[in-house]
Amino acid sequence: xxxxxxxxxxxxxxxxxxxxxxxxxxxxxxxxxxxxxxxxxxxxxxxxxxxxxxxxxxxxxxxxxxxxxxxxxxxxxxxxxxxxxxxxxxxxxxxxxxxxxxxxxxxxxxxxxxxxxxxxxxxxxxxxxxxxxxxxxxxxxxxxxxxxxxxxxxxxxxxxxxxxxxxxxxxxxxxxxxxxxxxxxxxxxxxxxxxxxxxxxxxxxxxxxxxxxxxxxxxxxxxxxxxxxxxxxxxxxxxxxxxxxxxxxxxxxxxxxxxxxxxxxxxxxxxxxxxxxxxxxxxxxxxxxxxxxxxxxxxxxxxxxxxxxxxxxxxxxxxxxxxxxxxxxxxxxxxxxxxxxxxxxxxxxxxxxxxxxxxxxxxxxxxxxxxxxxxxxxxxxxxxxxxxxxxxxxxxxxxxxxxxxxxxxxxxxxxxxxxxxxxxxxxxxxxxxxxxxxxxxxxxxxxxxxxxxxxxxxxxxxxxxxxxxxxxxxxxxxxxxxxxxxxxxxxxxxxxxxxxxxxxxxxxxxxxxxxxxxxxxxxxxxxxxxxxxxxxxxxxxxxxxxxxxxxxxxxxxxxxxxxxxxxxxxxxxxxxxxxxxxxxxxxxxxxxxxxxxxxxxxxxxxxxxxxxxxxxxxxxxxxxxxxxxxxxxxxxxxxxxxxxxxxxxxxxxxxxxxxxxxxxxxxxxxxxxxxxxxxxxxxxxxxxxxxxxxxxxxxxxxxxxxxxxxxxxxxxxxxxxxxxxxxxxxxxxxxxxxxxxxxxxxxxxxxxxxxxxxxxxxxxxxxxxxxxxxxxxxxxxxxxxxxxxxxxxxxxxxxxxxxxxxxxxxxxxxxxxxxxxxxxxxxxxxxxxxxxxxxxxxxxxxxxxxxxxxxxxxxxxxxxxxxxxxxxxxxxxxxxxxxxxxxxxx
Length: 890
Ligand code: ARG
Ligand code: ZN
Fold this sequence. Notes:
Blueprint: E1 6-7, E2 16-26, E3 32-42, E4 51-53, E5 59-65, E6 68-69, E7 76-77, E8 83-85, E9 92-100, E10 110-114, E11 117-121, E12 142-150, E13 156-159, E14 162-169, E15 173-179, E16 191-194, E17 197-204, E18 210-217, H1 226-243, E19 251-257, E20 264-265, E21 270-274, H2 287-302, E22 311-312, H3 318-337, H4 340-362, E23 374-375, H5 384-417, E24 421-422, H6 424-435, H7 444-447, E25 453-461, E26 466-474, E27 489-496, E28 518-522, E29 526-531, E30 539-541, E31 551-553, H8 558-567, H9 571-595, H10 603-614, H11 620-627, H12 632-637, H13 644-661, H14 663-672, H15 683-701, H16 705-717, H17 721-732, H18 738-750, H19 754-765, H20 776-786, H21 795-808, H22 810-813, H23 819-834, H24 836-843, H25 854-868, H26 875-886
Parallel strand pairs: 2-12, 18-19, 19-21, 22-24, 25-31
Antiparallel strand pairs: 1-23, 2-3, 3-9, 4-8, 5-6, 5-9, 7-8, 10-11, 12-15, 13-16, 14-15, 17-18, 20-21, 25-26, 26-29, 27-28, 27-30
The structure holds arginine and zinc ion.
């Protein structure tokens, strides 16, 4: 089908409103009957009387309007599946009957089956795969639902809101009736039916009421739900406390499913989760998984206000709910950690993710503002730009307005728009009004794509004891946007004296010094600030705590970076200085490698490394994250032409040399970081485990044979997955043949637990050395084709094997012989027939083709062209590949 572009500027309000919907389902795997009754009335401001009911892959049985069945000539069936009823000028009652086939639904949008259980996913446009409906977020209606199903297959029948009735039916069927007290758009509808069990608890709310909380899972997973329920309780209490937002329902349910394209979905009162974002025990989840589960539970819960009570007018406004909710989720996670270094560790992780994924997106053919101006397929815009950069934009508002000011703004936004749909302007207006600030320039963050660079120049004048900081901004062109207007950039700075102490800051116009850090507001292309009373040449700490999603260009000397890595009292920037040093070192080694000379470690980096490793005053968690080498993606980001093979060679040599040169020190640090023997996913213990894994990796790289035995022993005896997986990964990435035995043992032990077998896939997909001479692409291909536990219909399987390989194993995927790309072509095309959201996500691994070495680049280009030339591609895939081929940004 030809893909049509949808533009934000073309938005028109609905022609009709839906006052109420009653849905009745007769569930059947291949033939589910849907009977819907709609009360529809014209929008007074309408410009047109034609009522469009969206529909996809539905079998229409009948339409009855005001009690009379419509004749086939009384409505139009459009080629895309929609129905148009012309001239609807007064309130009508519509009854529609249609049939759907959940079993044949492999897209996982609409109603589908997951291991025999019925599940739904309606955001963004999945409801039209269930029944005919004006499927757009600016139409909210009261929903009631009745579900009829055979009792034996579907003992549990759930939908949004409150359970108002249940009972028995003939032929061993039963039913439940649900009523959602809050009007909602169709994308928040959910239905779950099957054989599930729940962990539940009545939870006391601040307002005195009690709410029933339930986590529904397949029976064998009931023991993995405790952490999720605890996280949910923490999320509810946090939103009451921090933003005064209360749970508005008597009942709040979470359901886990193994078959889910995304992380989770905030359906009103009935969140549906990918099981990897909800199920956890120490045996099946790592420290990171625990942290992620808490965040995602928080995220979906927080949508209840930012997303559900106030929703989006149209899908271009997606960041209105997603950016804001990611921000809320990040603040929640940080508040749960408490102390400031633990918070900094979380911030460093979030920013690294942003730099790895979003900065790359911004530099490629799919670059778009956090509020896109157009799309071919909305599912392609659930991106890290909309989500994570969107969250950074919200964070900048909090930085500019202060925590209290931000909270006031959020309260006003919710007061003004509760129960309706809103736009990004509505949000900014509420923020501006509540704080009496003009934020008009700030809106450019919503309309301009690309990562701004801020160039910093400094000048210390000894005689006048002044220090001048000049900031100038520049944003590179992105598809469709060659010239950018200046952004409003909050730029947090501090100045350090030679003793490592921050100095009190006083700008020229001020009468006295105030504080030791300052948020400069850069609004022009260039601006200078003059600090007075600066008696010695200071070392600046710039864009502290990542105060804006920008790239800072400043020529620090290596000595200054070493200094900051030791003294900066902003933990984020301290780690950042360490990262800059390691990048400097790795880039030098990359050049050594490419010139064919011996790779040597930069002495400044070496010093900083040693001093941080031995610093007793910092927490293991911080040490681990600050010392961890930058990801290959991060290293690639800074290179004009990417050669993944040299990057990998440099990293390997760096690890090996560090492991050899510091082996005694590292062994000591390893011993000092024994975690509590009773496992808990808390940040302090997790930090110790991370520190140990880091030590292990270096020791083994440095050729320490004992550490191999030790790793094996940990894999074989430890009870928690974090340690076991770290140990196994380190062995898999070593030259030791033990890896085959251990991978086999892991398979035997893990094959019946999807969470674990997915980890097993990823270990192999991301292995940094060939297995027995066999390139990793062959290992992956072999698993895809021959391993019985791999199922291409299951997104988690695809993500943890195929996507993990193509996205995260740069040196093996981008082999100059092109086998990686050949594999990519096959997989993208195969998966496109099954689930277009999955194929287009995989397709994006070739976004950056212009930036690779000429040989790779040529092969990537032909792979893209080949895919694009195939018939019947999904709109999802077509958009992504088409943009990769057409948009020249470099
Ligand atoms: N709103 C969900 C979230 O919490 C994501 C839904 C994604 N759906 C999709 N079709 N891409 O982030
Ligand atoms: Zn979300």
